[in-house]
Amino acid sequence: MPAEPLLAVTDLKVSFRTERGVVRAVDGVSLAVEAREIVGLVGESGSGKTQTLLAVMGLIDDPNAVVEGSIRFEGQELVGMKRRALDRIRGRRMAMIFQDPMTALTPVHTIGTQIAEQVRAHEKVSRAAARARAVDLLAAVGIPRPELAVARFPHELSGGMRQRAVIAMALSCNPALLIADEPTTALDVTVQAQILELMLKLREDFGSAVLIVTHDLGVVAEVADRVNVMYAGRIVEAGPKPAVFRNPQHPYAWGLFDSIPPIDGPRPARLAAIPGSPPSLASLPAGCAFRPRCGYGFAACGERPPLAGEPHHRAACWLPEAERPALRAARRAVPPGAATATAAATAATAAGGAR
Questions:
Q1: In this predicted model, what pLDDT tens digit does every residue of 66-82 receive, in sequence order?
Q2: Nearest to 295 by CA among 340, 262, 231, 328
Q3: In which band, very low, low, confident or very high, does the pLDDT at 2 lie, cut at 50, 70 and 90?
Q4: Residue 174: how many CA atoms within 13 Å on its side-chain side?
């Protein structure tokens, strides 16, 4: 029998009761993270990425929230696990880097105090030993003069240094899984590169797997082994990074990649953009949630498509798989802003090919 993944999420659903009815922020997400693997979860804001991470960490405690499905970590089922049992896992075997390092750190305590507190929560060590561990961790993440930085408050560090301190805290107990929510947001390009290099180094030094959420495809290209593309609470494409980047299968993924400035070739007068806006999770369209923005919709799209295709590269799309390369090539050949007639023609072609 094949070994069970380090993290296996199966048919995860996260719903919230609101004044407008039940809103499903995560709708049937399934993904896996193997040991020492870096998996990317990408998509526009509001697609459910952060809620997926919070559900994995067991941090959704809203009384109006309902979490369904299965989350297995190191063979243990986390959905429904008691708080005390979860606390023995979180921070020790599974840790999270939150999106905003300023709000993730307590402003009235020093950096060293906060790191040492996490160490002592999971290990029986003295205050002095925990503080010494904090100094070593700050040095490991590249903070200069860590013996001084350990006594500083969060507001005394730059954004990049605060992010490194948050990473040091997450690594304080050598977790098997590191969950990173937009770890490079609001950082300048130079610091972003340093943080990404640090994450790769930490995998080598600590052997941690990483589940990273971002809307920056450049970040995924730099560090990920596999990629999951998420839209409206659902995964619409999943596969190894080379396959997803070189041959994306879902029209939403086409839009994401085509909106990136090309590195070589002629410079476009205008970047391509995905028309419209993400749908409200309170009133999702029937069938494929991307249909109103797609341009290739036909009758079959009225039903929700399953993730299908090659075993290791799947997409949730009714377009015939054999016709997708030609459809994308035709899409890329049309200047941005002049695609209405072409979209109508390709939609008719797709509908004919699907019959």
A1: 999 999 999 999 999 99
A2: 340
A3: low
A4: 7
CB 154 within 8 A of CB 102: yes
The amino acid occupying position 163 is Q
Q: According to the 3-state scheme, what is the secondary structure of the chain?
A: CCCCCCEEEEEEEEEEEECCEEEEEEEEEEEEECCCCEEEEECCCCCCHHHHHHHHHCCCCCCCEEEEEEEEECCEECCCCCHHHHHHHECCCEEEECCCHHHHCCCCCCHHHHHHHHHHHHCCCCHHHHHHHHHHHHHHCCCCCHHHHCCCCHHHCCHHHHHHHHHHHHCCCCCCEEEEECCCCCCCHHHHHHHHHHHHHHHHHHCCEEEEEECCHHHHHHHCCEEEEEECCEEEEEEEHHHHHHCCCCHHHHHHHHCCCCCCCCCCCCCCCCCCCCCCCCCCCCCCCCHHHHCCCCHHHHCCCCCEEECCEEECCCCCHHHHHHHHHHHHHCCCCCCHHHHHHHHHHHHHHHC
pLDDT tens per residue across span 266-303: 777 777 788 888 888 888 888 999 999 998 989 999 99
Q: Are strands 94-97 and 177-181 parallel, antiparallel or unpaired?
A: parallel
- What pLDDT, on a 0 to 100 scale, did the predictor assign at position 322? 92
Burial status of residue 235 (CB atoms within 10 A of its CB: 0-12, 13-18, 19 or more): buried
Token duo for residue 64: 């109006």
Sign of CA dihedral 130, 132, 135, 137: negative
User: Can you tell me the distance from the alpha carbon of 93 to that of 87, in angstroms, rounded to the nearest whole number?
Assistant: 10
CA neighbours closer than 13 Å in the CB half-sphere of residue 56:
34
Q: What is the dihedral of CA 108, 184, 40, 103, to 10 degrees?
A: 20
CA distance 302 to 282: 18
Query: What's the CA gap between 307 and 267, in Å, rounded?
Result: 35
Q: Please report the pLDDT score of residue 341 as a whole number.
A: 43
